[in-house]
Amino acid sequence: MSNIEISVIVPTYNALSLLKRTIVSLENQLPDSRFFQTVIVDDGSSDGTGEFLRKYSGSLRLTTVIKDKNCGRAAARNAGVKAALGRILLLIDGDMEFDHRLVASHLNEQNKREITLLGKVVYKNTLQCRGYRRYIETRGANKLPIGNALPGRYFLSGHVSMPKHIFDSLGGFDEGFKAHGGEDLDLGVRITAAGYKIEYLPDLITTHLHVRKLNRALQVAKEYGYSSIPILVKKHPELIRELRLDWDRGIGLSNILKKFILSLVVYYPLRTIGNLLNGFAAPAILYDYLIFRSYHSGYYQAIFKQKAK
User: Fold this and answer.
1) 243 and 229 in contact (C-beta within 8 Å)?
2) Within its chain, how far is the Cα of 48 from the centroid?
3) pLDDT per position as a tens digit, 98-149
4) Edge to edge, what strands does the sheet with 116-123 contain?
5) Rounded to two decimals, what is the model's pTM?
6) Number of C-alpha atoms within 13 angstroms, CB side, residue 185?
7) CA separation (Å) from 251 to 87, 127, 297?
8) Full set of structural domains in the chain with CATH
């Protein structure tokens, strides 16, 4: 594989049926499926993924990394990059479909200039949770004008390419992040702090094959606040303000009102409304509130627990 220019890194965990569809998309790449290396990392799956990968006999130039236990997304992606031979990395989640020119398009863009290039992620339009699905398709880089350099907090590893030497120079993902979320934001902040540019190119599109239900998304947001945000703000104190963790801090009538807004008396009815509207559409501000309140709550639970020790 010495002539490989780009390596596609695909982490997966207990999602074999979706991984097979991602593999089909990779096998259908043009000009063929062998101009790039595919590295699939099975992060301790118990659904037969490891056995499937060991027996794989398709057209991909496949390298497999099979872990005995689940170590988290940061460690899985780092293991995949360690096995990568290409000078360019393309990180893609193992539950995506995409057209037959995606890999070549990323390589073409990287040959023009070395950059961290964030692609667009959409969701299969037949999925349930229409309201939340439409909401997350408009967040992050989608809120900014095309062509602008992205702040590090918008970095996402589900669909991104970058030179391997940049990834290596920053030490990759911080494997201290075990829960869902946090490792992307951390690496994004380090990328921009080191002087590298992150650019968003919405013409490069992958399609997510599943979407979380709203209650599960809020649970994940709370876990993120509890487990990941304390690590983030310790490493990057400026994120306290960027994540609005200080929004209800202080004294005065306005802060009393803010604390009330974040109380269960307000949260539970709005969550119920969000679930009722989720099959149709709900205002973005409602999802903004529910997600913010969830990770804010998780973060302060972790802080209070630390203080109680």
Assistant:
1) yes
2) 24
3) 999 999 999 999 999 989 999 999 998 877 778 888 888 888 888 888 878 8
4) 61-67, 37-43, 6-12, 88-92, 159-163, 116-123, 198-208, 96-98
5) 0.93
6) 22
7) 53, 44, 19
8) 6-208 (3.90.550.10), 214-308 (no CATH)
